[in-house]
Request: fold
Amino acid sequence: MQRPETTYFADVLTNEMITPHMRRVVFGGPGLAEFTSCGIADEWIRLFFPTAAGEPAVLPVSQGKGWSFPDDVPREGRWYSVRRFDPALSELTVDIVDHDGGVATAWARTAVPGDRIAVSGADGRYGADVPTDWELIVADMTGLPSALRILEEMPAGKTVVAVFEVQSVADQQVVQTSAEVDVHWLVHPEHGSAPSQLAPYVEALEWHPGTPYVWMSAEAGATRDVRSYVRRQRRVPNGCADVVGYWSIKRNTR
Reply:
């Protein structure tokens, strides 16, 4: 992922569970007054978390392939999708999968209004390089915030097949879209601790005629299998697929 160089302070406004395994944090404050959306539906930012409770937030500086910090105290950073950005209010919404062992989850479980972190500028990649006939949108819970925003911003008349893997039925969310979308929900109680079911499900799908645009954000092993399938078996042209491993089950990097 690219690393937009500008960084901003972001203050927690609200923090709530929206499903049993998904937490929504809304950031605001004067530090986000200059934040701008990149305008791409799957845009992401990097969140920089404190190393200890009560540690003051500092703005990192992009340096080579990493980041440096003015106080020389490294902070853990993770890439997260922008679920929503309201430029009028300078409010940034991020959905975080709630699971044991994650840096972001550990911070989010105790974050309260007024807590401050640093965030990077936004970047994204969604969109085919050439005209396509329909779209296949695939995500596990980590990719779901981007996928739902993509569908929300999709124009009427677009034909879409969406395949989403969640940990429980209660983790399913309302899909709001003007497009013609066929949504498939896969419930995987061991989501995050056992191999994903997404690849075999995608391989069993009946595809629409014509050229698709395939977008996927999920665990690295699942995305590797789907990427191979759409390229080798389905012969999806270059520029018509963005299949990205968001995290690795081997390293539990959610």
